[in-house]
Amino acid sequence: MESKDGAGQPSLSMSSSELRGSLADAKHSINGSEPIVNRGAKNRQPIRSYSKTTVMTEAGRQPWYNGDGHPIPPYIVGVAGGSASGKTSIAKEILRQLPNVSWVAIVTQDAFYKPLSEADTRLAFEQNYDFDHPNAIDQDLLIQCVRDLKQSRAVQIPVYSFTQHQRTNDTTYLYGQSVIVVEGLFVLQNRELVDLLDLKIFVQTDPDVMLARRIRRDIVERGRSMDGVLEQYFRFVKPSFDTFVGPSARAADIIVPGANNEVAIDVIAQHISKQLTRSYSCQLSQYTPYQNLGKERASDRMVRLVLGMSLNGNSVHAVEREPFSQPPDPKNAEIPFSLDKIRGILPIPPNVFIVPQTAQLVGLLTTLHDVKTGSGEFAYACKRIGAHVVEHAMSLLPYRECQVPLHTGGSYKGVELDVDHLCGISILRSGAILEEPLRRSFPALPLGSLLIQSSNSNYRPLLYSVKLPSFVRERSTAQTTYVFLTDAQIGTGAAAFMAIRVLLDHGVPEEHIILLTILASAKGGVWALYHAFPGVRIVTGGLDPDLEEYVLPDPQQPSTRTSPKSSACKSPELDQRQPPAQRRIFAISPGCGQMGDRYWGT
């Protein structure tokens, strides 16, 4: 009943009578051969399925870029095999087995079936259209999507209806996955697609089991008849396997059995984890400018490193420290506070714009810094400073001349915004402080958000959710979009760094991103952002001179005491309490504390 083809793989060779006689024998193995074993999946959240594209996100995503802001590509796995061989089930189990890896996805080749003409649709409903030929797949679109994912870009995956034999109007938004599995009949058949894969897997399953699964699936899920399924199988499925699918196993790195495959899945998961560990360790060691700097103060070292690069050919301008320790002289209250009247010159990058320091603005900044300020007064000061920041940022947008008619006749020559799309994106949660000032200036402004939180063990950011306007998700319109990116303050700039990378991955040009903040440090973050993204402009309401490093106990790892088993062998070295685990954080100095907590009174 089973023969070997030129690739050494089992080919489907079964007569109709043999088929009907073997269905009963194969039926009991359908469920038993399922490769899902759910080991190591207790901490996973439920899988969310959109069509056949599966997305798994359980925790914040680690940074996927280096210190220069360049993205590190995700790990792409290709899984091929015969129809109903268990490709999707094996792909899900591989992802479940990955330890400490979040933001993974399965992209199925079935989503990329070509749209059918009216005549082809009739053939499909009559089960006379060959869906098992490589030409039925939109290979160009699939390859482009995989290539974009390889470059950490956001993509829209088509949603295909197997009952209507057409793509629907919906798409599946996919972005940010660190591991992506592409599964389908012809994943290893197209050389251009194979070259984009980091690991190539072929699933080999008993033909009886594959056929029994296909019959059950097509009858139950797709509403087809037994005779129609069998006719389609012998007419299209079997020849396709012999001609295209089976021979593609030559391109595989590993062949996985369709049943009893726990060991193979463990080996694959360990291999992927090893590759991810290497890329993450390389990326994280370059990500932050504050690591491995020895005893020298990190903030000072960072300013010297990046400033040294800036002085070698690039222009650098300076701003003076804001004298928060010295309140304004009441006698000169009517004179605006200009930069040349403030002591202590600090260099800042040329892409940083500071709102002119008038007496009113310095007074509001003084309110922010005062530890005795209540939440209501603090919120009011934030909104007023935010209004100044937004108004200043508006001057950085492009404008064009226009003529408007006058009530008295004639026309007035003025200007209007020269942008196709404009939106505000908040870095939650403190970035939401600037949403109200944005709304006051642009009442109909579309808003989005990025939930980025620091990890419990260190200051590295973790990406939890991406909610962007539709025209930002579409690359064609994102390229003409201007974005007001908001964060309450910029210290290390880690969250802003990640947020900018997200927008760039969606196609927003670097020069179209304007970062709005109430307070920033002259050291550290603004220089890291300038080094990686010199085209991004930063508008801040105030600038504090320093960035201090603090070492705090890690609440997740309390101190431990070691004690010998016998009191006779006690020693001071063994009996002493070990110091608690520590974590390093950086804070703006003098700063105004946790702005989100003070703003909302939490």
TrEMBL record:
<dbReference type="Pfam" id="PF00485">
    <property type="entry name" value="PRK"/>
</dbReference>
<dbReference type="InterPro" id="IPR027417">
    <property type="entry name" value="P-loop_NTPase"/>
</dbReference>
<protein>
    <recommendedName>
        <fullName>Uridine kinase</fullName>
        <ecNumber>2.7.1.48</ecNumber>
    </recommendedName>
</protein>
<dbReference type="Pfam" id="PF14681">
    <property type="entry name" value="UPRTase"/>
</dbReference>
<keyword id="KW-0547">Nucleotide-binding</keyword>
<feature type="domain" description="Phosphoribulokinase/uridine kinase">
    <location>
        <begin position="76"/>
        <end position="258"/>
    </location>
</feature>
<keyword id="KW-0418">Kinase</keyword>
<comment type="pathway">
    <text>Pyrimidine metabolism; CTP biosynthesis via salvage pathway; CTP from cytidine: step 1/3.</text>
</comment>
<comment type="similarity">
    <text>Belongs to the uridine kinase family.</text>
</comment>
<dbReference type="InterPro" id="IPR000836">
    <property type="entry name" value="PRTase_dom"/>
</dbReference>
<dbReference type="GO" id="GO:0004849">
    <property type="term" value="F:uridine kinase activity"/>
</dbReference>
<dbReference type="GO" id="GO:0005524">
    <property type="term" value="F:ATP binding"/>
</dbReference>
<keyword id="KW-0808">Transferase</keyword>
<dbReference type="InterPro" id="IPR006083">
    <property type="entry name" value="PRK/URK"/>
</dbReference>
<dbReference type="InterPro" id="IPR029057">
    <property type="entry name" value="PRTase-like"/>
</dbReference>
<feature type="compositionally biased region" description="Low complexity">
    <location>
        <begin position="11"/>
        <end position="23"/>
    </location>
</feature>
<feature type="compositionally biased region" description="Polar residues">
    <location>
        <begin position="557"/>
        <end position="569"/>
    </location>
</feature>
<comment type="pathway">
    <text>Pyrimidine metabolism; UMP biosynthesis via salvage pathway; UMP from uridine: step 1/1.</text>
</comment>
<dbReference type="InterPro" id="IPR000764">
    <property type="entry name" value="Uridine_kinase-like"/>
</dbReference>
<feature type="domain" description="Phosphoribosyltransferase">
    <location>
        <begin position="355"/>
        <end position="549"/>
    </location>
</feature>
<feature type="region of interest" description="Disordered">
    <location>
        <begin position="1"/>
        <end position="45"/>
    </location>
</feature>
<keyword id="KW-0067">ATP-binding</keyword>
<feature type="region of interest" description="Disordered">
    <location>
        <begin position="553"/>
        <end position="582"/>
    </location>
</feature>
